[in-house]
Amino acid sequence: MNKQVKNVMVLAAVVGSLSLVSCREAKEEDSATPMQNEMHQENMDHDMDRDEPMMDDQDMDATSAKFKDDKTAEIYNHYIAIKSALVKTDATMAQDHAKMMIASIENTEVNAGLVSAARNISTSSDVNKQREAFSQLTASMETLLNGAIASGEIYKQYCPMAFEGKGDYWFSNSKEIRNPYYGDKMLKCGRIEATIK
């Protein structure tokens, strides 16, 4: 009888030890998961040339595109400033640049969608609502940009994960991906869909 009790106790100790080891391994796997997700996000940015140094925001905001008229250039520069604010998840900066865009649009013939989207960004302090309006702003900007570039290029970029997997676009001066729909959460998630010349 004592021998059976000893065997049961030894067996219980072995099972207990295995449980502790397996929990510790599960925790180590869980802690590795965020890094794996970050690596996956980095791998999604297949358009970025790995040999080029990272560009800072000021370099990325400078455009090589020259526009046929100054008013379009001014409106586009405000668009890029709004995009940069959303990349930084800065609702106040997005509001300020949207207000400047609205002032630039006055006395010009632009589509109503551009004015409406800029107004929605300028009146909201909720960055998620601003990002929704930015989607509309981008669609309206595309109409404005068609045939407006005299030289240089602008990149139309796409994030397949934006808006719960529906995906959405934005314009950029750089091939580097800086996602305005996710900011720091998925900064480099996206790809170049087209080059506008």
TrEMBL record:
<dbReference type="InterPro" id="IPR021782">
    <property type="entry name" value="DUF3347"/>
</dbReference>
<dbReference type="Pfam" id="PF11827">
    <property type="entry name" value="DUF3347"/>
</dbReference>
<protein>
    <recommendedName>
        <fullName>DUF3347 domain-containing protein</fullName>
    </recommendedName>
</protein>
<feature type="domain" description="DUF3347">
    <location>
        <begin position="75"/>
        <end position="146"/>
    </location>
</feature>
